[in-house]
Amino acid sequence: MDKLTEILGSAREVTDQVIVTDLLVTVKTAIINTAKAINETANEQLRSNLKLKLHAHIEQHERVFSYMMEHGYYYPQTPEQQIHVLNETAETVLTLNKD
């Protein structure tokens, strides 16, 4: 536990980045899966509820995306910079998973 505390303490900013990146991926998956469910249902009430949920997921994606942009975690307009950020995030995840 001391090693984990040491890693998390020294890499707090990057750890926040790992968490919010995972959240963004999760929200994107929720959007895709909800859209698929809308297309598959014949029940109008369920379809209506799923559409509301889809809009909520899209709004959540916007909030997470904005947070990432504000904190320098996401660079969609500069692929080279985004690749660098993704590599750093991956290295941090691998470090956290050791021992």
TrEMBL record:
Keywords: Capsid protein, Sporulation, Virion. Pfam families: Coat_F (PF07875). It comes from the Bacteria. It is found in: Spore coat. GO terms for biological process: sporulation resulting in formation of a cellular spore. Its main location: other. InterPro entries: Ferritin-like, Spore_coat_CotF-like. Signal peptide: none annotated. Belongs to the CotF family. This is Similar to spore coat protein. It comes from Terribacillus aidingensis.
